[in-house]
Write a structure and sequence with these properties.
CATH superfamily of the largest domain: P-loop containing nucleotide triphosphate hydrolases
Largest sheet: 5 strands, parallel
Strand content: 5-15%
Number of domains: 3
CATH class of the largest domain: Alpha Beta
Order of helices and strands: HHEHEHHEHHEHEHHHHHHEHHEEHHH
Radius of gyration: 29 Å
CATH topology of the largest domain: Rossmann fold
CATH architecture of the largest domain: 3-Layer(aba) Sandwich
Helix content: 40-55%
Shape: globular
Oligomer: single chain
Length: 454
Amino acid sequence: MTDSDHSSGNNVGDTDDSLTVREMIEQAGEESVFRNRNLVEPDTIIDRDRIVGRDDQLRTVVSNLRKVLNENRPPNLLLYGPAGTGKSLIFDAVARQIRDISKNRGYEFGTLRINCQNLRSLDEAVYALVREAAHDLNEEIGVARHGVSTSTKYDRLYDLLDEGYDSVVFVLDEIDLLLGRRSSSSEPAYSDLIYQLSRASIESIDIQVSVAALTNDPEFMNNLDARAESSFNPRDIPFSDYDANQLQEILRNREDAFIQDALSEDVIPLTSAFAAQSHGDARKAIDLLRKAGDVANENGDLTVTENHVREAQEDVETDRSLKLVEGLTTQKKISLYATAAVAEFGKSGSTTASSRVAFPVYQFLTDVLDADGRTRETFNNYVREVGTYGQLDHERKSLGGKQGGGMYLMYEFKRDPGEIKKRLEQDERIADLSHHEDGLKRVIQAQKRNFAEN
């Protein structure tokens, strides 16, 4: 590379007709379908007090939490249902209003929320609660993260609660993911945590304490040990998937993200229908609407149409690792195609392919495509490289006394090899191989017989 290649940091990949990098950056976003793109980020909450499609759940949460307003302890709650169905949204919206009203009456009500997904042990969960309480009360944490016992952390937590609140609800989000155990024979960490917290107001502190557990698992209560189940004894609040009409109403609340008349009439109904059919998840529905807008921007269009939604949906449905397959060189695609074909057309349900069979199949395919052939070593290097994209694993094996001995590689696909073949066939050149399937099968069977792998 010469010095002239570095002469301008803005001219990477320039041709006479191309824009510089700076020009691309400066021009990007000059015209957009979005007025405020943040409004279609899934975690941006629009008008939290106006909950859509969850009237029954909203009434139930209000009915239970409003007991605080009479200075009574609210019951323990279990909110369960699929992701993106409003569990956190509804609980947080109601709790925020209850707290504001209570504060105006001189009664200190608080909620301490932790997400258990990234917590590996009971000790980490208790420390996270201490940290939340200290932050909420503007106090020092007052206990070390490491090097002190879990019981010491509980003591600090209870001291903070006694000092700062009249009533507290512990909100344990993704509670079923707190799986750490003290030993292989003890109960999951979530059982111990729920047991201790639900008994805190009886055994450890003077204020009123309740627990609200949020989970995607409808069988969660079956996994609690008997002590925790008896002590927790929650009111159940189930959340089902959103249907298309509910999702459509949710998306209507996000229309202000776009400039006036940027959404064609069919965009929100189609986005809602796709989301309802696939998952019933409001966050994913919002994400799909945003991606449709991004597709329109990338195409230079100022109106989001049904085609943009369909393209965005196709992108969502495509596994990320399969997208990487699209960018492989032709030789790597042929190598992967040959290996996937051996696995697909082998024994029923098989996901494995031997390099001893796959390489001759690769040679057959290069002849069909009139492409240059590579050596066996290069072929195997290509296929192993694809393994780094999460498509397959490989294991080195020995033929022993067969075929004069020697080593070979056994590839095992992590997904349906037929699905990988179809993805590769989207390349116009590779697509021609689909017309030679009968010949391909004959070659595979012949090679398998030759190497006695049936």
